[in-house]
Amino acid sequence: MIHASAVRVEPASWQNLLASSITDPRTLLHRLQLDPQLLEGTLAAAQDFALRVPEPYLSRIRPGDINDPLLRQVLPLGIELDEQPGYVADPLGEQHSNARPGIIHKYHGRLLLVVSAGCAVNCRYCFRRHFPYQDNSLSTAEWDAALDYIRQDDSISEVIYSGGDPLAANDRRLAWLTREIAAIPHVRRLRIHTRLPIVIPQRITPELIDALCGTRLPVTMVWHCNHAAELDELTRDAANRLRQAGVTLLNQAVLLRGVNDTLSAQIALSEALGDSGVLPYYLHLLDRVRGASHFLVPDYQAQELVGRLLTRLPGYLVPRLVRETAGEPAKVPVSVTLVHDL
Ligand code: SF4
């Protein structure tokens, strides 16, 4: 007989956590003790854009609270299906910048590689919620062609791993890709846009760090965290390990009604990021994607909010307020309104 204390419970691997994510609206409502009357709308909205929530993220949501800021980001609602003028499938016109399968080339000097079609969480406000990922899942030959595109354009000094979430790809794929890109002399930097360290911090393994940091390329990782309650001991550990490996850590957030549209929420987010060694980089105005209109914060409120933030925090903890507009050669900075109410 084995004594109970002799049984060692292995922590769940990130792959198991990813595979066991909640995708059934009934399970989500049950686990979070939410009103069963939500089910009809939740099922309908999840048909349009699937529900996906991994366990480590779920564990930070307060049961029974329909207004929980983390829940609001992931819970499909019937309201998403209401047509709203000005809200479209591809608000950033990315399908025109989809230079070839797997590549989105919008701005001078850098391009996005769609490394993985999948995400670990499906965010209801995502501007790529209708993106044709099926046309951007690459065969080996297509990967070679995508790399050739980079090889042949010596204006490209930075490659950005994007998705979906690029860290949903396995370490072998990421290590191979990073080596291939590092072998292109004109590429000087690697950037990774990811939400995985927030929703499954266990993804930051030594093997992943080796895969990303094992070449000559300096690595910047841009997290996507929208609320202080998304950060905990595990995310802080993940940030520490990345910083020890020399990775520069930044954060981009989206300004979302009912999630982070108050001064206290933005201060708490910036402070919690600062505690983790992650610098706030961008605060994005909502991209007007079909299904996300209920998250909109009007421009004047956003401008005043960031103006107030400037009076409360050191400048390096205040993100730049930006809007992304189809066809523009860069993200457009949005002016802020300074408020004298200290
Ligand atoms: S993780 Fe990023 S790409 Fe994936 S659904 Fe959320 S916002 Fe969209």
From TrEMBL:
Lineage: Bacteria, Pseudomonadati, Pseudomonadota, Gammaproteobacteria, Pseudomonadales
Pfam families: Radical_SAM
UniProt protein name: L-lysine 2,3-aminomutase
Cleaved signal peptide residues: none
Reactions catalysed according to its record: L-lysine = D-beta-lysine
GO MF, any single term: isomerase activity
The Radical SAM core domain, residue ranges: 105-320
Keyword 4Fe-4S found: yes
Segments traversing the membrane: none
UniProt entry tagged with the keyword Ligase: no
Keywords: 4Fe-4S, Iron, Iron-sulfur, Isomerase, Metal-binding, Pyridoxal phosphate, S-adenosyl-L-methionine
Family designation: Belongs to the radical SAM superfamily. KamA family.
Cofactor(s) the protein needs: pyridoxal 5'-phosphate; [4Fe-4S] cluster
Chain positions recorded as [4Fe-4S] cluster binding sites: C119, C123, C126
Sites of N6-(pyridoxal phosphate)lysine modification: K331
